[in-house]
Structure formats: C-alpha cells, structure tokens
Amino acid sequence: MGGEASRRYVVSMFSYPSGDLHMGHAEVFAISDAMARFARMRGHDTLFPVGWDSFGLPAENAARKRGLDPREWTYANIATQADSFRRMGISFDWHTRLHTSDPEYYRWNQWLFLRLYERGLAYRADAEVNWCPQDRTVLANEQVVHGRCERCGAAVERRDLTQWFFRITDYADRLLDDMAGLRDGWPSEVLAMQRNWIGRTESVDDAGRTMVAYRLHDWLISRQRYWGTPIPIIHCGGCGAVPVPDDQLPVRLPDSGYRLSPGDSGSPLASAEDWVAVPCPRCGAPARRDTDTMDTFVDSSWYFLRYPNPHYTDGPFDPEALARWLPVDEYIGGREHATAHLLYARFITKALYDAGLVPFTEPFTRLTTQGQVLMGGKAMSKSLGNLVDLRDQIERHGPDAVRIAMLFAGPVEADVDWADVSARGAERWLARVARLAAETGSGVANSDPAGEAATRREVHDTIARATALMEAKRFNVVIAQLMRLTTILRRAAESESGGTSPAVRDGVDALVRMMSCVAPETAAVAWHHLGHTSPVADAAWPVDSGERQDIPVV
C-alpha cells in the first residue's frame, strides 16, 4: 500500500479561522470530500487531511478590537469550524490535524527559514516597500491590488524600510520551465497567471547581447505584526545578524508584555522588552531579537509536507511519510491563489529539493480550482449584507442537501450564485432515494426476467457514466445521472407486482454506493435500509458489467 499507483493524497487549501465556515468553504470541501470518498471506494490508499492556517492579521485585528489575546480568538474559531466540518460530514483523517500557530508547527517554519538563510535564499536589505497604513505592516507585491491592500482596501504607501526577503527570483526560470510538466494536471488559466506574473522578457542590447528581464521580485516575508512566526535572528552590535541555534527553536511568541498597537511603524514584538533583550548566541554580548514575524504565506508554503505525520519531532516532515504520500495527487482551492500561495509553494518545494530534503520538484500533481460562491451576482461580504450563514443552511436543509445544491449548480470551475440555487430540490431527491431504499429493503424478492434485463442495462450504463464523470470531476453531471437512475428504479419497482426484483435491489444498492460520495449522510441511512451492517463508506464503488465500454462523458 502507499505506492503511487494505489495511493491518493487529496488536500484542500486549509481554512483560515476568522469565524465559522462560510458558503465558500462548503463548496471547496464538498468537492474535495467527494474526491476523497471516491478514491477510497475505488480501493486507493487515501489520505484526506485537515488543518488551519491560523496565524495572520485578521485574527490579530479582531483580538485587538475585542481586547483579547489572539490565541483566544483563533482557537475558539478553530473549535467552531471543526464542529461545522463534523456537521457537514466531511471525511477528514482527523489524526493529521495541525494548526500553523502551534509552536510545534512554527518551530519548523523557523528551521526552514534558517536553512534558506544558510543557502543565501533568505536575506535582509533596505528597500522601498509597500506599506499599509491601516494594518500598519508591509505588504508583498502580490498583496497589493490596484494600489490598495488586498485585505483591508486601504491605499498603499511606499516607504524605505529594512526587511527580510526570500530570493524567489533565483528560481524564476525553473518556475517557468517546469510548467511544462504541469500542463496535464493544472488549469491553463492558473499557469498563464503565473507565467505573466513572473514575466520573463528578452531583448537585445546595442552590442547584440540577449538581455533577460523579469517582472517577478523577491518575496518580502517580514511583517510588523504580532500573530505570526518570529523570525529566528538575533541582532548583535559586534556579530551582526546571528541565527538562533536549532536547539533553541522554537523562538516562541511572548505571552505577555507586548502591545498590539505599538504605533505607526513599530512591531508589537518590539514592545516586549523582556522578550527582545537576549545575549548573542555567538559572543554572549547583549543583543536583541528580530521583532518582525513571517508572512503567513510561509506557513502555507509547506504545510502539506507535514500533514502525513504532524507529530514528527525530528524535522519539519517525516521522510518515510513523505516518500509514501508526496507529492500531493489532488489539490483543491481558488484560482485567486495563483500568484501567491501556489507560486510560493512551488518555490519552497524546489528550494527543499535543492537542499536534499524532498525528492520531487513540484508539490501538486493535479490542481482543481473552484468558482466563487456569490449572492445576487456579488461576492458575499458583511459590508454588502449578502452573507448566507452556512450553519443556518445546514440546520434548515441538512448537510447533504447543501452539498448537493452546491455541486449540482454547475461545473466545479464555474461561479455559483446562491440566489439561483434551491436546496429544497436536493432535499426532495434525497428523500426519494431514502424511501426507495426503505421500500426495496423491506420488499419481498420477485423475478421478472424481461424487466430485469432492461433495468440492469440502465444501472450499468449509469455506473459507467458516473465512474468516468467522477474521474473527470464533473460532479453536477454525476448527480444528474443519479437522479435519472432514481427515476428509472422507481418506475421499475412500481411496475413489479408482488415484490422487488433482484435487478431493482442491485440497482438501488449501486445507486446508494455512488451517491455516498456526494450525500454521505443520506446514503448511510439508505444503506441501513437495504440491510447492510457495515458502513457504506467502507463499500466498494460499483463495477460496470462491461457491456457499456464506450459510453461518452457528456
């Protein structure tokens, strides 16, 4: 088990705990859960991890407004989201759970920073940088949209500051050239966005020499905020910038003595004087810790490497688990991450490969990008007053109906306008399947050879189509096929007298197996009605008889 042919490592971009789950989460995790369940039913050794991208400015700002420690706000939201994931029935492998704000995790952020520093890929320099006056921190170029902070919308200023950078420009050519190996697994739109962002251009100078230029700049990773990974550098008057020794990691955030609002351009950590003042690790003279924290995109640039064994203590990731599961087979998330998270993850993976720490150069074999969930044609937001509460939708319609409504609304990559979606239609179909299973399970066996042949052909036709469609991630068409099969089986059952034929019974059995990938709660109930004692989640995907080998996927 665990070989590349038999394994499936399915990863959704992890959640940020800014509150409870929202409708966008419902979409991406309904998609990824369907993929993971399908892989398990096809006999693949499957890993479907869960974690939280739990450092970051929104939590710090929310905590400051409420007079809380960011830890209180963050971990309370994580608990709320974990409960909502369970309500939705997402089949995570919960033993993989990690939070990037845990010292056991960010210790390895610091360790990786030091390895990059040793290789000349992390450096400190004076530079004109983007400054957000509202959030009081620097921003990477990727976090500025049309001259404004992508998070708060404030007009960005330019300031001269000393900052930390990762030398991503050293990898510009490889990031471009290696896209050739991603063409079969990544959306062309995402690759085009990265290609344009890197922006390699060639020209000829007056001497006839070819000149190459790039739009890409080095990744600015230092932030003047508290709730992030402390940069593991100590500044000594005599020795300069000195790395914190590995055996002193993690450099933990101070629990007290800091101010979240230290002033215009100071870091909150600079106000924690007892934390800042330390002896130099090299000469022992009085020195000071670096008071910036890392961009949270550093946290998310490698978390998928740690998931398979999040409790490993001898390094950032377990080499045996890495060999078993990586690279990620299926990665799911928004295309808006093309020029930041997805690019950074590719860069870090290549840097780790060059350091001999991982045996591959690309982190994600296949990438699925889902559309946005809108309301009335606009992105959901508190300011527009068009937020739809996911928990309310689950309580009103049930988790399966919300999943089905989301997946049935259109292709995975298309935007979904919740104003045009009805979960009630999904509820009605789920109820029809449950009734059909209950009646089939309690019916007396009957045989109608003529009717059986036609029913079996329809069932195997649907199995063949649904299998191909699931592999193609055409979940909306899968659901349409299952709805059609439900109608066929209902009519066949009603046409029989004195009992239920084996063909109908087998057909309902296959229907319930297939629907368990997209409506697991209803499938579990229907499976019980059919008389099974083991969970439907442990059942195999139904197999086509072989009579329908060349059915087109439409």
UniProtKB/TrEMBL annotation:
**Domain annotation Aminoacyl-tRNA synthetase class Ia: ranges:** 16-418
Q: Which domain of life is it from?
A: Bacteria
Q: Which PROSITE patterns match?
A: AA_TRNA_LIGASE_I (PS00178)
Entry's EC annotation: 6.1.1.4
Q: Which reaction does it catalyse?
A: tRNA(Leu) + L-leucine + ATP = L-leucyl-tRNA(Leu) + AMP + diphosphate
Q: Where is the Methionyl/Valyl/Leucyl/Isoleucyl-tRNA synthetase anticodon-binding domain?
A: 457-545
Any Pfam family the entry gives: tRNA-synt_1
Q: Which molecular function terms from Gene Ontology are attached? A: ATP binding; leucine-tRNA ligase activity
UniProt-listed SUPFAM superfamilies: Anticodon-binding domain of a subclass of class I aminoacyl-tRNA synthetases, Nucleotidylyl transferase
Give the record's GO biological process terms: leucyl-tRNA aminoacylation
Keyword Nucleotide-binding on this protein? yes
Keyword set, alphabetical order: Aminoacyl-tRNA synthetase, ATP-binding, Cytoplasm, Ligase, Nucleotide-binding, Protein biosynthesis
The record's section on CDD domains has: LeuRS_core
Family per UniProt? Answer: Belongs to the class-I aminoacyl-tRNA synthetase family.
What PANTHER family does its record include?
LEUCINE--TRNA LIGASE, MITOCHONDRIAL, LEUCYL-TRNA SYNTHETASE
Q: What is this protein called?
A: leucine--tRNA ligase
Q: Native species of this protein?
A: Nocardia terrae
